Structures are given as structure tokens and as C-alpha cells.
């Protein structure tokens, strides 16, 4: 594929016009712009990554973001997406622009000595374990290229961008799911009187169930098998707790949670309580 160079960002990236359809693109790859000049038409190999500048993102127009972030942040975001591709296969690379924008702000915060805290970091690390692992590659990149230390809270936010690149959810939806899961776990602790350790198997099972329960509520999906009658007779206390939790979650999400979810949540509460009693 041939591209006419419109603007060189650095040795590894340029803005170009695709020869075939006159589309504006961001082209990224090792040394792709090295020794090149504006106006020159260059072939781009399959190893290079090409991003359309027609994209509209959560944070605005891709072309506007490109003007406001440093080329290095684009490179960092591109590398995170390369790592995500190795881990997950195909990823939505349009997330590059919002991720680069976030990284640009994060780097400025770190350079200004501003610390952010994210009360959901532990939940994100467990809920999106593989995404967090991929996002962690940013630590080494920032240390090597800019001598900057990035903390776990910032990595948690990058993990949400990675998650958005592999599923049909944007970053704010992923954050909402993490926040709602945390709220639900707090309600479970209140109902059962038991502290739920985020590193425990019980948390992992419960968290995964709640995560998909919230996603089903957001997307209007329903479970098929109804456990309510069985759970309400066999385990009435966990069932009543699950019912109260589901009603509270409806208020928080401002979305209906189908009654069929109660039995499944009750089953997880009973399993968790049974594990605690037997340990």
C-alpha cells in the first residue's frame, strides 16, 4: 500500500494520505518515517499499523487528539495494542487515540507530582486480569523512554482501555461495570456480615457472576433456566439476601434486573457462605 506523507511526527510515525482512496491515516512502525520527507510517496509494509483519522472517539475526533498528544504517547498506545493482539488475537485498534490521550494526561500528572487514586484498582486487576497484565507493559516503556514510574492505579485505567479494545464496551461502560461490581460486593458483605477478600476464590466466582449479571442488565439479555423456586425453598436466607441486593442494584444501575437473576446470585451467596463455614 502506498501513502503520501502529509506530516512527519517522528522516525516511527507519520500522517499520510492513502494513494487509492485519498483517506487520511496515521501510519506507525519502526523507522517508517526515518529519512523521509513531506510529499514523498512511500510503500508501507504489513508490519506497520495504519489508523484511519476519520474515527470519532469518546474523547473527540481522532484528528484533534492527534494534534494534542505527543507522538511518543501514540507509540506507547500502539505498543500496548501490539501486546493485546498477542494475548487476545484481533483487537479494535481505534482505541489507540483515546488510550494515547489518557497516557498523555497520565504522564503530565506524574511529571507534576499529582497522584490519582482509584478505589476500583484491586477489582479491575482481578476482574480484567489479562487486560491488566497487558497494560502493565507500559511500566517498562515509560521507565525506558522517559524515566517515569507509573503506579498501579494508572495501569488499572489503561487496562480498561485494553478491555474496550477486545469487547464491545467502551471505557466508561467497563468502569461502570467495575464500579457496580464493587458496590454489589459491598452489599454482599453487608448482607452476610462477611468480609470478601478480593484475592479469594469466593470473590473470584462471585465477581465473575456479578460482572456478567451487570453486563446482561446493560445489554437487556436474560438467563434461560430459573432457579428461584428451588433456591427460595432450599436456601431461603441467601435467596432473600440476593433479592434485596438485586433490588438495590436496580436503583444504582437505573436498569431493571430480571427476577430470574435472584436465584443465581443466591446460589453464589450460599456457595460462598458454605465455603467460609467449612474453612
From TrEMBL:
InterPro entries: BglG_antiterminators (IPR050661), CAT_RNA-bd_dom (IPR004341), CAT_RNA-bd_dom_sf (IPR036650), PRD (IPR011608), PRD_sf (IPR036634). Keywords: Repeat, Transcription, Transcription regulation. The keyword Transcription regulation applies. GO terms for biological process: regulation of DNA-templated transcription. The keyword Transcription applies. Residues 68-172, 173-279 form the PRD domain. One of its GO terms (molecular function) is RNA binding. This is PRD domain-containing protein.
Amino acid at each position: 500500500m502506498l501513502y503520501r506523507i502529509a506530516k512527519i511526527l517522528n522516525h516511527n510515525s507519520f500522517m499520510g494520505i492513502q494513494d487509492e482512496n485519498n483517506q487520511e491515516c496515521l501510519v506507525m512502525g519502526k523507522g517508517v518515517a526515518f529519512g523521509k520527507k513531506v510529499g514523498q510517496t512511500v510503500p508501507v509494509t504489513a508490519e506497520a499499523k495504519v489508523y484511519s483519522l476519520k474515527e470519532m472517539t469518546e474523547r473527540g475526533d481522532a484528528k484533534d487528539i492527534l494534534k494534542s498528544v505527543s507522538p511518543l504517547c501514540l507509540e506507547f498506545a500502539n505498543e500496548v495494542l501490539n501486546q493485546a493482539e498477542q494475548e487476545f488475537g484481533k483487537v479494535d485498534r481505534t482505541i489507540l487515540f483515546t488510550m494515547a490521550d489518557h497516557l498523555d494526561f497520565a504522564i503530565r500528572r506524574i511529571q507534576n507530582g499529582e497522584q490519582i487514586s482509584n478505589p476500583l484498582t484491586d477489582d479491575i486487576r482481578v476482574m480484567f486480569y489479562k487486560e491488566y497484565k497487558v497494560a502493565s507493559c507500559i511500566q517498562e516503556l515509560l521507565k525506558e523512554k522517559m524515566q517515569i514510574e507509573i503506579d498501579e492505579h494508572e495501569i488499572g485505567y489503561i487496562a480498561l482501555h485494553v478491555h474496550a479494545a477486545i469487547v464491545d464496551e467502551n471505557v466508561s461502560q467497563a468502569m461502570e461495570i467495575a464500579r457496580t461490581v464493587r458496590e454489589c460486593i459491598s452489599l454482599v458483605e453487608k448482607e452476610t456480615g462477611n468480609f470478601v477478600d478480593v484475592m479469594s476464590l469466593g470473590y473470584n466466582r462471585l465477581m465473575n457472576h456479578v460482572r456478567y449479571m451487570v453486563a446482561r442488565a446493560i445489554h437487556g439479555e436474560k438467563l434461560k433456566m430459573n432457579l428461584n423456586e428451588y433456591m427460595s425453598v432450599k436456601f431461603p436466607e441467601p435467596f432473600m439476601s440476593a433479592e434485596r441486593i438485586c433490588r438495590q442494584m436496580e436503583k444504582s444501575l437505573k436498569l431493571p434486573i430480571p427476577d430470574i437473576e435472584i436465584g443465581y446470585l443466591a446460589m453464589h451467596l450460599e456457595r460462598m457462605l458454605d465455603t467460609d463455614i467449612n474453612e
